[in-house]
Amino acid sequence: MITSFKPPQRTLMGPGPSDVHPRILEALGRPTIGHLDPAFIGMMDEVKTLLQYAFQTENALTLPVSAPGSAGMEACFVNLIEPGDKVIVCVNGVFGTRMIENVTRSGGEAIRVDDAWGQPVDTNKVEAALETNPDAKILAFVHAETSTGVESDAAALCALAKAHDCLVIMDTVTGLAGVPVKVDEWGADAVYSGTQKCLSCTPGISPVTFSERAAETIRNRKTPVQSWFLDMNLVMGYWGPGAKRAYHHTAPINALYGLHESLVMLQEEGLEASFARHKAMHEKLRDGLAEIGIGYLVDEAHRLPQLNAVMIPQGVDDATARGRLLNEFNLEIGAGLGDFAGKVWRIGLMGYSAREENVQLCLDALKAVIK
Amino acid sequence: MITSFKPPQRTLMGPGPSDVHPRILEALGRPTIGHLDPAFIGMMDEVKTLLQYAFQTENALTLPVSAPGSAGMEACFVNLIEPGDKVIVCVNGVFGTRMIENVTRSGGEAIRVDDAWGQPVDTNKVEAALETNPDAKILAFVHAETSTGVESDAAALCALAKAHDCLVIMDTVTGLAGVPVKVDEWGADAVYSGTQKCLSCTPGISPVTFSERAAETIRNRKTPVQSWFLDMNLVMGYWGPGAKRAYHHTAPINALYGLHESLVMLQEEGLEASFARHKAMHEKLRDGLAEIGIGYLVDEAHRLPQLNAVMIPQGVDDATARGRLLNEFNLEIGAGLGDFAGKVWRIGLMGYSAREENVQLCLDALKAVIK
């Protein structure tokens, strides 16, 4: 007989999920109502307004996709790409690689611009690719690489794309609410994020925003979007704009209560204060790590404060150390991926995890397991 | 300033979501842990075992898709269909129509077998379609049509498909836990359901199960699955079978706590007892409706006990009546779809909604608004 699951109380300092604030956990358990209930539709409008605030955009087509960040990514690619479209994809980590998969599975042609993992996207290489591919329709890049903790220069990449008349698809799953994400100022056309990073919410929902130019591109497609579930032409009928709400799929009601609460909290704190808190906690962690001889993978200029990719000290076994952190300290940090497996740890300071107690626990626990 | 959302306390007797049991709401708010945490992976194994129980199957590839039922549907179609494949699709309601969309968007050719909405799928027509299309690869049908409350003869349809060497895709979003769903006995190859119906859980997750024959078909594809997010070759790497758990996407942790709890409750009650409860509540509702002159859309032999499509009495305005039920009784029932809009109500008795108090409330409230 299988019984109720009682999860342990962990401190989550990996690449996500991050610690979920008690207010958000409480919101998840509120009474379920219908997805066409007028009360729910009012909440949906608030979620859209709050997401516009988080993304710093006035895009009407700003909403939460009813599935994790990977589905938000897929929503951007399948809606904008038609068979044969050329897409320049910047690859400097796991999520750039996943973008390539999305392009080819959507029938597009991917032009790959590679940079070493741990480095930001090189704008010179991108400019060269745009010049040699004047027929490219889209430039796709990862603003905040979750696999390496690198921030790329989103403003410069968007400007290059505009200068070459390309649409921009931008991944900021780990960026949103941790560092500035200026969708309108930069001119990014299709942007996706996740709830389980700097929004401190549970995983499972992907906020997305599409510029008017992107929405127009979707409305004018010659071929149907290959995914029925992610077809924005249909999703728009439920999420608006406009008063009429046509049933498309059943929204994940309680998960959206959680997202709403996390966005209310972000608005209460204020975007700038949230960025400042992530930066302050990052500096505190960085200084503490330096004292115990742990250095960073990424150059200071390109580090995401919320995702600290650090070098595992020589002589320390990765799996053993992370196992001890989990079992002795209930602390989760992330493993390295790809070539960095066994060499790098990823320490998240995202959302509710970006606070003094967590930094202190992490430093104390690391001190204990690496000695 | 937008503040926390406090939903009203409704009684949910529409086509889903159904009332969520307090134990499940409580489970949703338990502490979030990581998607690669050994404690979480233990819970995943339990969810798989419990889903096998619910689906009455030993299929190893039985798991919850991290998105609503529509995505579960899409997972079945995009994984089994390759461009040019012929699929016989039975259409007797909204969800059969949606299957057609899924076939064509996956590059398949849909052979449509229509029956009137409110009627079950006609096995003679299906047999004829199988005979005139010996090259068909798949037969797809809806076991329990949420749009009309009709149950089709799944055993007979699966047998026909087997006799003609076709794979079966079956929609039982509204069926699971409300009426018998015998995946192995019937020989259905790819089956999807939802959490927000007779499992009484919140919406957002889609349980699916694939037979070994379906899994083999997926492994031997000549073309990649068009959806990266739903590619079962990749999802299998995270959900097993096998001990190694490769990161694919971040699982919706807390939503899965809810599903786990709902499945534990189903196991405690027992499948047969759950079916009997749905049937008993249906009969009580039916008898009460008869007393106030409300009859059914569907013939008795093909009615789903958990979804009662009933005729709106003459002279009663649909929207006004449902508005009063919601505003005066906090009771949600469902509208009719398509040709049945304004003519039919859909009264759900699913999961935790299938209890005496709900039936009584519904009868009392209907009496008040139709007089």
TrEMBL record, chains A, B:
Keywords: Aminotransferase, Pyridoxal phosphate, Transferase
Coiled coil: none
UniProt-recorded Gene Ontology molecular function terms: alanine-glyoxylate transaminase activity; L-serine-pyruvate transaminase activity
Domain of life: Bacteria
Record-linked InterPro entries: Aminotrans_V_dom, PyrdxlP-dep_Trfase, PyrdxlP-dep_Trfase_major, PyrdxlP-dep_Trfase_small, SP_NH2Trfase/AEP_transaminase
Amino acids binding substrate: R346
List of residues that carry N6-(pyridoxal phosphate)lysine: K197
Membrane-spanning ranges: none
Domain (Aminotransferase class V) ranges: 35-336
Gene Ontology biological process terms from the UniProt entry: glycine biosynthetic process, by transamination of glyoxylate
CC cofactor: pyridoxal 5'-phosphate
UniProt-listed SUPFAM superfamilies: PLP-dependent transferases (SSF53383)
A Pfam cross-reference name: Aminotran_5
Stated family: Belongs to the class-V pyridoxal-phosphate-dependent aminotransferase family.
Protein name: Alanine--glyoxylate aminotransferase family protein
Source organism (scientific name): Halioxenophilus aromaticivorans
